[in-house]
What we know:
Largest sheet: 6 strands, mixed
Distance between the termini: 33 Å
Shape: globular
Number of helices: 10
Strand order of the largest sheet: 6-7-8-3-9-10
Structural class: alpha/beta
Strand content: 15-25%
Amino acid sequence: MTDAPELLVTAVTKRFGGLVAVSGASLAIRSGHIHGLIGPNGAGKSTMISLITGFLRPDLGQITYAGQDLTQLDPAAIARLGVGRTFQQAAPLLGLSVLENVVTGLHVHYRSGIAGVLLRLPSMRREARELEASAYLLLHRIGLMDEANVQAGVLSFGKLRFLEIARAIAMHPRIMLFDEPAAGLNQPESEQLAAIVRELRDEGIGVLLVDHDVPFVFDLCEEITVMDSGSVIAAGDPDRIYADPLVRAAYLGAPDSSNEAA
């Protein structure tokens, strides 16, 4: 664990035609820390995640990980470097079991092709056994062991969320970006998610957590960045962010509001 930022976003701008989705935004993610990114709908949070992970390219600014420029790399190359993500909409590989979905998440570590491992071709059976054992361990950790052989497409909404997380963790990221992971989860599932995020932090992984559940974010994060209309309007520890008048006006509401988590 270190206090030196491992992932740096510096003055990044992204335009879609005449719309400026992200405007000169900066943030820093440190190993072994949980960093929150909050703001109203349309603030640019998911766009920021897509810029960091190569699904979008910035028009201006720079994104670096461990000193390496990410701005011209594709998503697969960025994932191989150690920057993983989840998506708002879980998209399992239909027709495959939960276990097989997690095995495919290990693809960046394959010496053989995915098809060969899944089909258990003779030359690849040893690797298939090793990957399957790793996938079982991950399912146990994430709470999906009982569903290992279930078709992924029949999972409940909450379990699909955890399968998405398992597939991301399977890639052994050093930085993990969560895009609305608590959306739609019930209280026990949210508590399970929080425990997983803390475990990743304790393993030295840097976490960027984007979510509209403000109490969830404030409880987990050591540092929070707030965006509004594409710009960063505040950054600091949770107490500072909670008291910031600009943040309250843009997102949290009045101090005595009963709808602060909306």
